[in-house]
Design a protein that fits this description.
The protein is mainly β and 242 residues long. Helix content is 0%, strand content 57%. The protein is built from no helices and 18 strands.
């Protein structure tokens, strides 16, 4: 099991000699569903192509192997897509309880614990990320229905503002670039007793991207999604002709 959204208890005092507060998860789960989580999200530059893969760590929920497993996708012509793997998503309540004996005082600062566990069956798939215009990744969809059945987490993989030098091949040769990222920020929306909650978490997956820009074709503005405070992942693009 991997806990992906657990707000750490807040220490009220460093130590209590007779009894202390402890934050504990409830014995029963209030939500348990299959979910599809992206290993990688890939944008291709308009006119060019891109590939990307994310490495699921050994024994991570959803990885059937005891070794790291790479899962990826190839995109072209300004289109975008993601590679997804199946996990079991569970939600439990958190509550404060008194524990007799010495220990550090801690109280829950969140009502719920979200965790990923091994699925009932392992699965891998790829999906297209809809966007209104393949010359730019602006207004790209931030969630998809995987296999038309299960909703994936929410993510941000679209273009906002350029934060890296553009790629310009006007009057020149084609350009290839390789990019890496060490994280991908996601969030799950859950509903409990009619109340909706958004629970964020970060996947610690190493992702590798390869981009190819054609010769004498145009200028691509770049939003590096793994720049400081970014959502993680590779590049997003906005294209202009020569």
């Amino acid at each position: 099991m991997v806990v992906v959204c657990l707000t750490l208890p807040t220490f009220v005092a460093t130590w209590a000699p007779l009894a202390h507060w402890s934050c504990r998860a409830g014995a029963s789960r209030i939500v348990e569903v299959d979910a599809w989580v992206p290993t990688v999200l890939v944008n291709s530059p308009y006119g060019g192509n891109a590939s990307g893969s994310g490495v699921i760590p050994a024994s991570y929920p959803g990885n059937p192997r005891s070794a790291p497993t790479g899962v990826g996708t190839i995109q072209a012509g300004g289109h975008s897509g993601g590679a997804f793997f199946e996990v079991n998503l569970s939600l439990s309540t958190l509550s404060n309880s008194t524990v007799v004996g010495p220990g550090a005082n801690s109280r829950c600062s969140s009502l719920y614990l979200l965790s990923l566990e091994q699925p009932y069956q392992f699965g891998f798939t790829t999906e297209t990320l809809p966007e209104p215009n393949n010359t730019t990744d602006q207004s790209q969809a931030e969630s998809v229905l995987v296999n038309n059945l299960t909703e994936s987490p929410t993510f941000h993989n679209g273009f906002e503002l350029p934060n890296s030098p553009p790629i310009d091949t006007c009057g020149g040769a084609g350009v290839d670039r390789v990019v890496t990222s060490s994280y991908l920020r996601l969030s799950f929306g859950v509903s409990v007793s009619g109340l909706n909650f958004t629970l964020p978490f970060t996947l610690p997956f190493v992702q590798t991207f390869a981009y190819a820009f054609p010769a004498d074709f145009g200028v691509w503005q770049i939003d590096n999604l793994s720049a400081q405070n970014g959502p993680g992942g590779g590049w997003a693009f906005s294209y202009a002709a020569c």
